[in-house]
Amino acid sequence: MYDPKELKYSKSHEWVHYDGDDVIIGITDYAQDSLGDLVFVNLPEVEDELTAGEALGDVESVKAVSDIISPVSGKVTEINEELLDSPEKINEDPYGAWFVKVTDVEDTEELLDADEYDKFVKEEA
Amino acid sequence: MKLIFERSVPGRGQDIFPECDVEVKLPESPLREKAPNLPEISENELGRHYTKLARASRGVNDGFYPLGSCTMKHNPRINEVMASLPGFTRIHPLQPADTVKGCTEVVDTLRKTLCEITGMDDMTFQPAAGAQGEFTGLLLIKAYHKSRGDEGRKEIIIPDSAHGTNPASAAMAGYDVVVIKSNEKGMIDLDDLKAHLGPQTAGLMLTNPNTVGLFDENILEITRLVHEAGGLCYYDGANLNAVIGIVRPGDIGFDVIHLNLHKTFSTPHGGGGPGSGPCGCKDFLAQFLPGKRVVNGEYTQAENSIGCVTGFYGNFLVMVRALTFLLTNGSDGVPELAKNAVLNANYMQEKLKDLYPVAYDTTCMHEFVMSLESIHKEKNVSALDVAKALLDFGIHPPTMYFPLIVDEALMVEPTETESREVLDNAIEAFRAIYKKIIDSPAAVAASPVTTPIKRLDEVGAARHPILKYDFSQEKAE
């Protein structure tokens, strides 16, 4: 599990962990809580090019399907295949259940730090 | 309750077929190694099984069914009488056209009537449901651009309030989907539309009135802008019930449309189907219409047809029902049904909006959307809970969590076929549930309590679906 205090956040409720030049992306506790119990996840494929601000995949709850917006542009090096069989991991451990690892990162969306994100969520709620 | 396989007793069965008294010699290769696992059950037990199943289900015949965006209206019985006439049922699509003149006349009359109602010039009945009608319409748009050598048009514009089938159909037709925003009034954001129009635009797909039950006041400007950019305008007929006989899509700039006969035109809807999603178009697109057609009593095919989208001429008996509905209502009755559908929705909205905030507080069309966001926050009772609580009042829940642009949405569409008493009863149920939300929210969250099945484990069913029956397990027991 990644420490939520150390992560960066997008306003569309994804978290970003910097690992040197590469990044790891997941969705926040607030996001999983709002979506409800997830039953299906669509992930990109390794080698796919992501574009900041566009969907990298989607998650499905019994209510709806929601896009996961990529906070960065870059190339996918690894996907968390465990989520495909066990989407409930995202509900149980949102800061451990990463979605993708991305390299050649460029063109990052404006990201918030943990305190700013907390404030942003409180305003939105 | 038991599955039919669990009621099966070896050796029990029905004597439909007499003992075979001729010698049958079949080659070995196509024979099964063992007999299929068919249930063995007597006729009266079989009847009881399906009666029990029917009791556990719910339809328009059981009570009010205000499922938003689905137009669950009453299907007049005379439709069924007409669709049972032997002249319509004992026919075959390969029969010569001059031996089924009554049937071809049904197709011709229905096509002309629906074209008149929608302002279109031609129509195909091949599509078997709404989404296939959308797909067909998009293929017409694609064929049009291609025929002009205008092949750079890769994008279909769809507002964020659209039914999910719109982006799905566009993707199926090979287009990139561009989603544009709705403004604070629930209408298309014109600036966002302008920003996304260009030489890459193949067309716009629009439902009007849209999924929040509002007629887009800028519709003429919207279709003009799309045409100026070289795109075509597609009308999703999902919500035609609100404007039928009053506004014609063809008069407000649409080039191609689909209709849902199973919604607006009172043919069976839901699992019972089959559906019918005819696709209509303006003259310049008619050359691309799909597959086999009946035109003026003859079997024919469009000149530059995109090919068949289903077999033969469409779900014919559904067409018989739709035509019966139109002829029963007549040209004066059709606009009347739209007016009553709108009146019923506004009546319910007005009687409920003091307790359940509406998403867009204005006169609605055939349906309205309530947002239970504040109730959810303050009382921890969700739209789902209220939907389930309505079951205890004998009312089918409204559509939930759609459209996606409204949080904790409940979308109510009463249709024109419900009486004031039914609406008043539903209003009372909604208000009683609200009182319960205030007094004992936990009780609302625990509903329903009177249905054969209580809360379903939807999450468990979606995560670990059991999609087949395991016979080996049964034998092990």
From TrEMBL, chain A:
SUPFAM superfamilies recorded:
Single hybrid motif
Please report the stretch or stretches of sequence annotated as the Lipoyl-binding domain: 22-103
- InterPro entries reported for this sequence: Biotin_lipoyl, GCV_H, GCV_H/Fam206, GCV_H_sub, Single_hybrid_motif
- GO biological process terms held by the UniProt record: glycine decarboxylation via glycine cleavage system; protein lipoylation
Q: Which residues carry this modification: N6-lipoyllysine?
A: 63
Swiss-Prot/TrEMBL keywords: Lipoyl
Q: Which Gene3D superfamilies match?
A: 2.40.50.100
Q: Which GO terms describe its cellular component?
A: cytosol; glycine cleavage complex
Q: How does it assemble?
A: The glycine cleavage system is composed of four proteins: P, T, L and H.
Q: Which NCBIfam families match?
A: gcvH (TIGR00527), PRK01202.1 (NF002270)
Q: What does this protein do?
A: The glycine cleavage system catalyzes the degradation of glycine. The H protein shuttles the methylamine group of glycine from the P protein to the T protein.
| Record-given protein name | Glycine cleavage system H protein
From TrEMBL, chain B:
Which UniProt keywords are present, listed alphabetically? Oxidoreductase, Pyridoxal phosphate
Gene Ontology terms: cellular component:
cytosol; glycine cleavage complex
Q: Which Pfam families match?
A: Aminotran_5 (PF00266), GcvP2_C (PF21478)
Q: Which residues form the Aminotransferase class V domain?
A: 151-270
Gene3D superfamilies, from UniProt?
A: 6.20.440.10, Aspartate Aminotransferase, domain 1, Type I PLP-dependent aspartate aminotransferase-like (Major domain)
Q: Does the keyword Repeat apply?
A: no
Q: Which reaction does it catalyse?
A: N(6)-[(R)-lipoyl]-L-lysyl-[glycine-cleavage complex H protein] + glycine + H(+) = N(6)-[(R)-S(8)-aminomethyldihydrolipoyl]-L-lysyl-[glycine-cleavage complex H protein] + CO2
Q: Which residues form the Glycine dehydrogenase C-terminal domain?
A: 339-438
Enzyme Commission designation: 1.4.4.2
| GO BP terms in the entry | glycine decarboxylation via glycine cleavage system
Q: Does the keyword Oxidoreductase apply?
A: yes
At the top level, the lineage of the source is: Bacteria
**MF terms per GO, please?**
glycine binding; glycine dehydrogenase (decarboxylating) activity; pyridoxal phosphate binding
List, alphabetically, the PANTHER family matched. Answer: GLYCINE DEHYDROGENASE (DECARBOXYLATING), MITOCHONDRIAL, GLYCINE DEHYDROGENASE, DECARBOXYLATING
- Give the protein's biological function: The glycine cleavage system catalyzes the degradation of glycine. The P protein binds the alpha-amino group of glycine through its pyridoxal phosphate cofactor; CO(2) is released and the remaining methylamine moiety is then transferred to the lipoamide cofactor of the H protein.
Listed name of the protein: glycine dehydrogenase (aminomethyl-transferring)
